[in-house]
Amino acid sequence: MSDPHWTGYVGMATGIIGAITGVAGAIMGYVSLKKAKSIKSMDLRIELRKTISELRLKLDQLEKLIEQANGSRKAVAAAAGTSSSSMMDLWIQGVQADKIAVQKLSTETPTSKNDYVASDFKELETELLEVHQIQIQVDALISKYNTALQADKEIRDHLKQQSTAR
Fold first, then answer.
1. What pTM was estimated for this model as a whole?
2. Is 2 exposed, middle or buried (0-12, 13-18, 19+ CB in 10 A)?
3. Distance of alpha carbon 18 from alpha carbon 23, whole angstroms
């Protein structure tokens, strides 16, 4: 029987080292993946809670904005002599419908007291999308009433110009 050559020992040693390295790499990859998911979930929880807080603030501002715009529209209509017009009736109906919509959106919006620790990645993603959809509706209403206030300002300015021209 011949003596084994030294290259066989080297090959066997590098094979064992490679196997150990492969197993260690797989374990480290799994741990890193779990850590990355945990960090991503934490980021989503923070983003969700931040978005909910901002949305709650916007909802409060929207309620005040609706009242402000409604008062402004009534004052402009009184100054223009159109208080009992069908346009004012439509405005009042729209304001009432928007108040109901704001109440509905407010009840649909989760509270920021929930910490979402038990929620997994998909649940957080779904919740964030739902809150974002509510935020889009709130932003549309804010834009509507800001535009109405701007229109009232222009009418007010026009009425002032007419009164000073007389």
1. 0.75
2. exposed
3. 9
